[in-house]
Structure formats: structure tokens, C-alpha cells
What we know:
The structure holds two protein chains of two kinds. By secondary structure, chain A is of the alpha/beta class. Chain A folds into two domains: 2-173 and 374-393, no CATH class; 181-364, no CATH class. Chain A has helices at residues 26-33, 143-164, 181-187, 248-252, 255-263, 282-298, 314-327; strands at 2-5, 8-12, 16-18, 21-25, 39-47, 53-58, 60-62, 65-67, 91-95, 97-103, 111-114, 129-137, 172-173, 193-201, 208-211, 214-215, 222-224, 234-237, 269-278, 303-307, 331-338, 359-364, 368-371, 376-379, 401-404, 420-424. In chain A, the strands form seven sheets. Chain A has a six-stranded mixed beta sheet with strand order 17-19-14-20-21-22, with helices on both faces. A four-stranded mixed beta sheet of chain A has the order 8-9-1-13. Chain A starts with a strand and ends with a strand. By secondary structure, chain B is α/β, with parallel strands linked by helices. Chain B folds into two domains: 4-170, 3-Layer(aba) Sandwich (Rossmann fold), CATH 3.40.50; 225-347, no CATH class. Chain B has helices at residues 35-43, 58-63, 65-79, 94-110, 123-128, 144-159, 167-170, 187-199, 281-285, 293-301, 322-339; strands at 4-11, 28-31, 48-56, 83-90, 114-118, 134-136, 178-182, 229-234, 238-240, 256-259, 271-273, 307-308, 311-314, 343-347. Chain B has a six-stranded mixed beta sheet with strand order 2-3-1-4-5-6, sandwiched between helices. In chain B, helix 4 (94-110) links the parallel strand 4 and strand 5. The longest helix of chain B has 18 residues, at 322-339. Chain B is globular, with a radius of gyration of 24 Å.
Amino acid sequence: MRRVKIDKIVLSDRNAIEGSTLSVNEKELCAHLLEDRHLKSVSLEVAHPGESVRIIPIKDILEPRARLDEKQDSFIGVISDANYQAGVGTSVALDGVCVITSGSMVNFQEGLVDMSGPGAEFCLFSKKANLVLVMEPAEGITKPEHERAVRYAGIKAARYLGAIGRNASNYTERVYPVYTTEERLEKFPKLPKVVYVCQAIAEGLLHDNYIYGVNAQGCLPLLCGPTELMDGAVVSGNCAAPCHKHTTYHHQNNPIIEDLLDEDGRTLNLMGVIVAPVKTAFAEKERIGRQVFKITQMLGAEGAIISEDGGGNPEADLMFVDRLFEKAGIKTVLITDEYAGSDGASPGLADVTPEADAVVTNGNGNQRVTLPPMQKVIGVLDSVERITGGHAGGLHEDGSVDMEIAGIMGSTNELGIENLRTIAI
Amino acid sequence: MNAIRTIHYINQFYGQIGGEEKAGIPPSLSDGPNNLGAQLEKAFGGAISIVKTVICGDNYAAEHGDEVKDFVFKAIRDAGAEFFIAGPSFAAGRYGIACGSLCQAVAKELKLPVMAAMNPLSPGVDIAKRDMYICQAGDSARDMRNAIAGMARLGGKLLRGEKIGTPEEEGYIPRGVRVNVREAKRGSRRAVDMLIAKVTGQPFVTELPMPTFDRVPPAPAVADIEHALLAIGTEGGIVPRGNPDRIEAHNASKWKSYPLTGIMTLRKGDYEVAHGGYDPVPGNENPNRVLPLDVARACQKENRFGSLLEEYPVTVGNVTAVRSAERYGHEMGLMLKEKGVLGIILTST
């Protein structure tokens, strides 16, 4: 993984990386995105840390990435073919840049990012140089078409920017070894074998994820090497509430995979990553949970981390698989967040099981915050009253907002990319 | 800092008026602290000045809650007090409920800092713990010294506006609420650390304990049953005709105790089923089949046990919140214990 450090974006008439500044050819990128006839308009905005800027409503956030080989596309299988092996070879990331998709709302699960003030304490996106795509849909298209158009635009923009990084001369590189199962068993015979199970919601409009470009609604669990997600093997269709949906950025930079790779070959033997779709029907939860269990057993795993995606019914999947694992002696850690009410007094999970004795929580999404007015709003401010975490009357005349942190992108991220948690008092 | 003007609430026993026989006395107001209040003032190190002491009988407080609350509110307003202390009440039932209810009312309605000390088993805890910090105390006045020291330590922090830490650090009863805090390590790293600990058999602490239902171990057998005071009780809703206290047919808000003195059997028509969760016809026909008084009296006659408690606790266990059920169980247990009951047959429907 080659990382090109960027801390500033300039809209320009050319593409370039000079020092840590990224220049973006505004006209060319907009024209590229407007090739999709489902979009009526696209405009670009930039937002940097510390600025008095509020971005809302946000659908997805992506990190610009490219494969060094120009014949290969990052976000494998989306729009282009899945015709190479993700997770091996060299990939390039513009580290410090995010592509944010915005514009009029598709559905309630869209969120907010503040670039300064108390709201900026809650997510890493407030600390990035952000390129915001403000997009309006063409007349007469359906909501699913609108969602797909903005999702594709995010992918195309992240690829477009990522490609600029191919020629950058200043970068750092980290090499992640890719082992076969046989090599793992030979090299690390004494280390505990573990897997990581990454839930990916697949429950309909604005609740879907895409695995190698396939809607996860049509997928059974997929076994991956840990580096595959870095190439965009999972793309977010913006699932669940803003605070705890995994954006595509989170999947690309999955912190559990990063932290497991830091231990891989030292204290643990990471046998694989299982991406597990989450659907609503109990029959599907059983079907998928059993497959996750089967793959884990086939790998001989003794331990597992399972991360939740979203909240509510995915907790049934989480607890179901935890029970299967623990009963088979697979030592399991769950990672979740809570909806414990604004007073923190309600049970925070929709399902529990006594076997779940090792749980990491990433905070209570119902915590209330008041966000002061910002000088500039990118997007549509009044949508703050309609997104998850907002409420009618939450937007005040002066532009300040009363809301729950549930509406802030990634504030209680269940991959544990932030450092929020709850404690009992 | 000037000493904070404080009102101190205590019951008739700690007010040195009397024991159970004085439990019916209405609230009275005296100037300054009594003995107990003086110890509190001393423990607070001059930070508080108890300007008035409210003394009230436990039964009076239990039966006239609103009146006692108004009395305390008036005392606070008249004295211009800025702090309210109740107890310590340890594991006491009625006294704990009074302390908890009054502290809760003062905290919520007058927005003043409050302090109490109770044993976690006290029914006052569930009433007030979410709205205040209750200093954790032992189950009786033997723990008075600790209780006072704990109240002064925690109360002093409250009055100084200092940040209150976790229950373990500060010695208060967990409030049952979860608050967001920042950790040094991000969530993913904590999960990986927890996994390493768990797979290698090292200790780890979950961040989110699963709610568990209490497992109550059966009490040991009654040693000397021939001399023991026993009781009968039910969640089956057998109540006197007309359900005088209006125990609800589901999610009951209360439990009650009704007399059995001189009653040898529960006659059809004198008692009825208030429970909304089962077919009431057989129970109305013969209430003994839910609350077996007829058999209890027969056994009593045969001297199979010492004596029968001449009242029975009853509620309706139907779609009842676990939290309520736990509270009723605690309260019934305290009542039975106070009466010296050594065993009870609880029937369930």
C-alpha cells in the first residue's frame, strides 16, 4: 500500500500533486461525472479542517485509491470488471483526502460532518481535506436510480483522484505479506488462529453493500484475504444510521484489519476475513450465520472478532453467530455501539446473549449535541431535520442544530475507528 | 467558601423520638443539626451548615408522601437552603423509600444537589439512583462511620462542582445509565487486545456486560419448621372482593398485603381474581386453589409448623416489567423479614 500524504485540495484546471497539495481539474471531473444521465448537475466544493463549514446531507465517503497498474481499477467489480485479484500488487491511496457525496437527500440515513466546533470532535472526516460532490438528480428518476447515480459518482471521483497519485514522487509504502493457508500454518504454528467477521448490511435502498460489485443481498458470506478490502472489495451503499454505517472509507481503511495485521505473525495468525451480509428475515440470518460458522471452522479458527454494521436487527445476527462460535469453543469478541436513549438508561442493544462476554462498544448514538452555526453550508441544511438523529425543530433560525450524534457520520463507528465508548455510571 | 445551607432529613429513630411505636408521627422541624447531623457537618469539614433538621415517622412518610414532600420543600425554601441530605438509611424499607423519593423530588424539581447513603438492597435505590448519586452503605447503622465519610467525600465533590468518576472510584451505587467517554485507544485496537487476551486465557473486561436475569439460589430448608412462622403469598392476583386497591390486571404498579386473621378459608365471593393473564373462573369459584389458605390452616391445626403469618402479600404477575417485579420481590422480602417469617409458599399462575 503506497500512501501519498495530502493535506490540501485546490480546484484548478489541471490535475497535479505538488508537495502535499492536490490540484483537481474541476471541469474535467464534473464532465466525467455528468456522463451519467441520471445526474442533472454536479458541483465541487472543498472543505478543510478548522473551517467554519457544515456538510449535509452526506451519503457516502471514500478515500481516493488507484491500482498502480493502469489496467486495473480500484473498487474492483464496480462499473468495471472484477478481472484481477484484489489485495495483491501495489495500490495507491491519497492519504488525507476524502470524497464526500452530497446533494439533495435520497433517504434518511444520510449524515452530517462539521469541519470545526464541537461536531468536529466526533469523526475523523472533520480532520481530512474533503472534496464534496454536490449532485442533483435528473428529473423523474426513481430513488434507487438516484442512490446508484450518487454511489457511482463517488466511485468514479475516488478513482479519478486516485489515478493522480500514480505519478506522485513522495509517498510511504507498507508491505503486507499475503500468505496461503499452508504458509500460515507452517510459519506460525504456535499462534492462535483467528478470523475477522465483517458484517455488511444488505437490506434494501440505502441499506446495501456491494461485494466485488455484487449487491450483498444476493451474496452468501465471502472469505477474503485481509488486504482485499483495501482495494475496495466492499463498497458501501450507505447502510443504516450515519453514526454507525460503514462508509466505503471505513471499509477501505478497516481499522480492525489494520490492527489485526499489526499482530499477524506476532501474537495471532489471521486466517481470513469473512464478509457477512446481514438481511432482515430470520431464515436469512440462520442461513448466513451458519455459513460464517462453517467457514470459520474449516479454517480451524480458535478466536474471532465480529463487527456489527448498523444497529437493531443486525444484533440478532451478531448474537446468533456469537453463540455458535462460543459453543464450539471459538473465543469471540464483538464490536458494536449502543442506542441507549438520550439519558443512557435504556438497554442499548436489541438482542443479547449470555455467551457474549467480550464486547467492545463505540458509544451511545443517542447522545444529544448542540452544534453552533457555521459560516458556510455545503449541501442542503434543512435536511438536518429529516436525517436519522435529527428531529423537526432541531434546526434553529441562526443555523445552530440540536441533534443526536447518530446523525454525525461515523461518530460511533462499529469498526472502532474512533475512540468513543460508553461506561456505566 | 461559605458553609452551604443544608436541610437534613431523618426518621423518628435517628431523630431520637422513638422506634416503631413512633413511626406514625408527622414531620417536624428543628433548628440546626441533631447528633447525626453534627457528625455530617464535621465530616464535610465545614463545607455545610445544617440549618434545619426534618424528622418524620416512617409510616407517616410512607402514607403521606406528598404532604412530607411539601413540608420538606417549604423547609428548604424558608431556610434558603442549597443542599439536601437524607439519611443515611442503609437497607431500611420505608425510610429508604422516603429518603429516595425526597432526594429525587428535590433534585428534579428544585434542581438542588442532594445526598443520601443506602444499601443497594434498599427500595429507595431504584427510585432515585438515576437522578442522583447515592453513596453505597452497609445494610445497617453499624456502617454509620463509613456512610458518613462517603457522603461527605462525594457530597463535597458535588458541591464543589467537581467531575464525578465511576461508581468504583467514587463509592456510589451504579446509576444504571451509560455515558459516552473517550478512550486512549480506538475501538478496533481495544477489540484486538481483548481478542488476544481471550484466546490466550488472560483476563479481560467486557465494555458492555450483557444484561442478565438474576439467578436466585433457593434458601436453605427451614431448620425448625415446627416452631417457624410461615406465610403464603401469590402473584396470582387473589384480592378481597371488589379489588379495593385496584391492583392492575397487567403490568401491576403495586403489591399489597391483606389480613388473614380469623379467616380459615377463602370463600367464593369474598375473594376474586384480579389477574388478567389466565382464566379466572376456577379461581373465582375457589380462591384457595390459587392461594392455598385452606390447606395451610389444616397443616397449622396439625402443628406441622409453628404459626401462619396473619396476612398475605399479593400482586399480579402479568406482563409486569422485570424492574417492577424485582422491586415487589425486594419489598415483600423486607416485609416478611421484619415480621420474622422464616418461610413462604409463593404460588404462581
